[in-house]
Design goal:
11 strands, 0% helix
């Protein structure tokens, strides 16, 4: 059983930056953080949850939603059991609840098939 705890959300002005963190716990020697693909999703009011970024267990493979390419960077520190989402050049369309997720398959890391979810953290981009 893996528990994910997010932090770093808040209110920023357009063009600003935020760095979200996702700390994992409940890991064991047989169920290590490095087993998991990590991803970030977001959900705006009235819209479906969408994946914004995904990162392989070793940090070598990534995929980003078109809307965030060039602005967001997903990373992880396996020694700290933590994943991150660096968000630059934020715009009001980025306003959403952001969720950290973990899964065991890079190619099926979706809303429907992610194994674990964080509680979500609100990101609001407004003047």
């Amino acid at each position: 059983q893996v528990t994910l705890v997010e932090s770093g959300g808040g209110l920023v002005q357009p063009g600003g930056t935020l760095r979200l963190s996702c700390a994992a716990s409940g890991l064991t020697s047989g169920d290590t953080f490095s087993r998991y693909v990590m991803a970030w999703f977001r959900q705006a009011p009235g819209k479906e949850r969408e994946r914004v970024a995904v990162l392989s267990w070793n940090g070598h493979s990534t995929d980003y939603a078109d809307a965030v390419k060039g602005r967001f960077t997903i990373s992880r520190d396996n020694a700290k059991n933590t994943a991150y989402l660096q968000m630059n050049a934020l715009n009001p369309e980025d306003t959403a609840i952001y969720y950290c997720a973990a899964g065991l398959n890079y190619y099926t890391m979706t809303v429907e098939r992610a194994d674990y979810w964080g509680q979500g953290t609100q990101v609001t981009v407004s003047s």
